[in-house]
Design goal:
Mean pLDDT: 83
Distance between the termini: 39 Å
Oligomer: single chain
Strand order of the largest sheet: 3-4-5-6-7
Helix content: 55-70%
Strand content: 5-15%
Amino acid sequence: MNSDKPRHSFHPAARLLTYRLGTQGRRNAFSRRFRRASLFKEFLLSDSGVSSFCPSPSIAGRRTKSGLVIRRSVFWPAVLFILLCVGLASVFPNSMARLFSSAQDFIAAKLSWFYILAVAIILCAMTLIAVSRFGSIRLGPDHARPAFSLPVWFAMLFSTGMGIGIMFFGIAEPVMHFLAPPEGEAQTVAAARSALETTFFHWGLHAWAIYAAVGLMLAYFGFRRGLPLTLRSALYPLIGERIYGPIGDAADVFAVTGTVFGVATSLGFGVLQINSGLGYLFGVSTSTSLQMALIFGISALSALSAASGLNRGIKFLSEANLILAVLLLALVFAVGPTAELLKHFVENTGIYLSGLITKTFTLYAYEPQNTEWLGGWTLQYWGWWISWSPFVGLFIAQISRGRTIREFLAGVLLIPAGFTLLWMTAFGNSAIDLIMSGTGSALAVAVSNDVSTALYKFFEYLPGTPYLCAIGMGMVIVFFVTSADSGAFVSDTIASGGARRTPPAQRVFWAMLPAACAAVLLKAGGLQALQTMTLVSALPFAAVLLTSLCGLLRSLRYDDMRRQTRRSTVTSSAASGLRDDWRERLRTIVTYPTERDVRKWFDRTIVPALEDISTEFEKASLAARVVRRDDAVALTVVYPEVPDFLYEVRLRHYESPETTPESDQSAFSRAEVFLREGSRDYDLMGWSREQIIHDVLDQYEKHLTFLRAVNAPSVAT
């Protein structure tokens, strides 16, 4: 007998012996190469968490005696740090403001180049990923689909990202650049053109690229790789499994505190605009007590929204916000010079895009007299967007599961930015035109003295002023509520370790904590110090963000490589001619089995087939196991140093299509194949044992092909 002949050749599983790692010496060499590989590469090769049979380590918090679900190593440090910072800022407001202002001035003078370069790299990376082949990768398993429709998704993006900002600065910023441009003469046609270009630059693609980068990393590593949906997951390419330890906890504490401080400072400064609106409409005087009452009133509404959950209160308020924004925008276009405003929008967009590269890298290195302007405007915005990105990015990630990367980036970059630019044109150009015509001198004075009154002063020049002011103030309130409830939802998610269900009281706590901080600091005069500290914290996070971005790109490369190997290797047995009886195949196709039929097929054919091939894997010196549960069965081949192979069959239910012959059956079931990356979208009903075994081997061959492909550089060296 030929000793080279494979063992067990009588069984189809003998094919695996030609694709196994070979002799024991070759297997050990392969393992040694993977041991020499970095931890990061090992992570890239894995698809942890997609399958329920291979869950990732959990960081979910534990339920306390009081019923709260918290991760103690995140919750308590975050709360104590927040209280400490608020206490220092309220007791020593001037000293803390000077300290952080000095740090901010140092950053503007010495590290402005880093901020500018970092944001430029982020925008370029997001653009390249969107147009590359990586864009077809789905944020989740391959079978995942979005939970929210495009309009709802956009509404939630817009309301959380910067909805309140456009109400505050939609008029103020263009007018301020028009009155005091960084270059050229003020209050000229060139100044007007430059004012809108600069405003577009600060509120356009760069801001949303920062949000998109953080959101993409969290959504990809969380939904595609099965890591916790918290900020720590963005650090996996840097520190590996240590994200489950103190370093990961510290990252989540940073995210929680940044979220609370960001919401608190926004509430503190935003109530000024609401107070101004009440004063304009009802003659209410400005007072600290009224502002604190407004803070707690808004926070109470946000608490109710957060307690109701993502799919109810937050969704409803986001939709309401968008409707109000579209209504107000339409009214301004309708009562203003509609044709002129549309011409302005088209030209402003062209000016913005044509000068995008130049503006991106402008540091005024040859005009040092403008360095102060750069630090007071562009760097302030970049720092603010970066400091807010953990909060906004995590929220965007949570509402984006199931979308492709290209759909995600196109939506996050283009839709909110486009609407924001249209808004800035309608309000900013209208205000500048009033000032240039000589009729809006009072508007210029109002902007110079108090930007919180700019919106209401602008409405004085339009018909129906009281109604417009009422709508505007209502929008400000709703925008604040949606920002605060999103912040509460994100803080609760992180502090609970990504727990899916937490008590409503817990979300109420995270909604009221920023309110308490804002009220205390508003009373003590320490709000400015807290805001400056938040902006300073953006510097180290920008460095972490750039490094994590490199890890994301490498992970996407390996993910794409896996997909390519599955397409290029042998096709499934369903298409390879193994099913010789075409009549039987036709009967299978036109039959819509019930759940009972599929369960019988599981017991009769699928499970025995997987057990047979598991036995053959073990004879081939490979560790294999079959795990059965009520609605699924999985075969896993375990390796000591390389990623495991998983072949899973799940019972799934579908509505019967309209082509189904007339019957009373409204639904049918399938025995659907899943690999680590998700559903393969084909059914094993009607397949024989031999056909199923051949299909397993097909997928196993593809798995080994992928391992050899990603390890090719190591082999070459």
